[in-house]
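About this split. The held-out portion is used to measure sequence recovery: a designer receives only the structure tokens and must propose an amino acid at every position. Recovery is the fraction of positions where the proposal matches the reference. Here is one held-out target exactly as it appears in the evaluation file.
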């Protein structure tokens, strides 16, 4: 099973921010990826799942 569109969007933003921060600081702070991933996933997990089986997924 792949990522949902919300998950893929959150991952893309996280990767872009990590690249930008790494270029600025040379390294990511310890725990940064974990903390950012938790913050990005919270709203996704809180969304109710669709009961419509006629569409994607």
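Reference sequence for scoring:
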């Amino acid at each position: 099973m792949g990522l949902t569109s919300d998950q893929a969007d959150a991952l893309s933003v996280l990767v872009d921010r990590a690249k930008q921060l790494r270029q600025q600081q040379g390294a990511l702070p310890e725990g940064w990826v974990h903390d950012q991933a938790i913050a990005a996933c919270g709203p996704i997990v809180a969304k109710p799942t669709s009961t419509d089986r006629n569409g994607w997924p």
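Annotator remark: Helices lie at 5-25, 32-46.
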